[in-house]
Fold this sequence. Notes:
By secondary structure, the protein is mainly alpha-helical. The protein has 17 helices and no strands.
Amino acid sequence: MKNADYIYAVASIRVKEKTLLSDADIQTLIGMNGKKDILQYIKERGWGNNPSEEDIDKVFSEEELKAKMLIDSLKLDKDIIDVLFYEKKYHNLKAAIKEVCTGNEDPRALYDDEELKGELLVKAIRESDFEKLPENMRELARKAKELMLTTRDGQRLDIMVDRACLDATEEVAKTSKDKFIADYAETKVAMADIKIAVRAASTKRKLNFITDALAPCQSFDVAKLAEAAASSLDDVYSFLKKKGYEAAVDAIKESYSSFEKWCDDFIMSRLMNEKHNTMGSGPVVAYYLARQCEIRTVRIIVTAKENGFSEDTIRERVRKMYG
């Protein structure tokens, strides 16, 4: 994109930022009685396409589509857009392979993807027509399908595809000429590696399992992180503290949900810096990610209320807002 295009894109986003939910809005939602009141509140804030809509899940889907359509309309460079959807694309690959190899169909397991519709992805996997897939996923799909057919080991499939997703994201971190996207991609990989290490240490996984799951990143030496995770959770704590992630350790000790919240808030804190930028992809991408965060947070509140969680418990789980 040219500088003039970025100026227009950022100006458009500044208007949209005013409609984002704030931390105060989230606290208001937490204090509400249930889904009906929450739905009414977000519809009053412009969510959904139909003021009389009563299906909150449909409203969430409509808002996700609006965010995607907006970012598409601003015509950012394709490599910038692509990395934002890696997780969903690789998730869809896993879901399609599992469906084909187990025969268990669940349309809800697949995210919407304009580039490769769910039914077309499943058809390509079923027929081993890997040329229909994005070029960087073809060999992975072939190996992943072979693994699943041979072993029926869904966990090994998850590790293989998730690692490939992280490797693709790290490649963006190393090669992108867009500093914001490179920093975002690197942060995503670092947070994912820390999560993997914590889970592995908690479940006492072996070193080779951990090494297979962790993706190399520029933030720290993953070989040493793997050794720490294979040793004990305390060794993971020591590693993280040395690397400046003491707040992560405090969150882990509180609960795993608190730790996941910390990871999301850590990324959000990086996005907040883009509020003051007037050029580049940062403000546009930050807005899109902020929209995803607020939709996910409202989902968490609705689900928590439906399951009888207290307001204090919900507050421990909600993410920091960008608005």
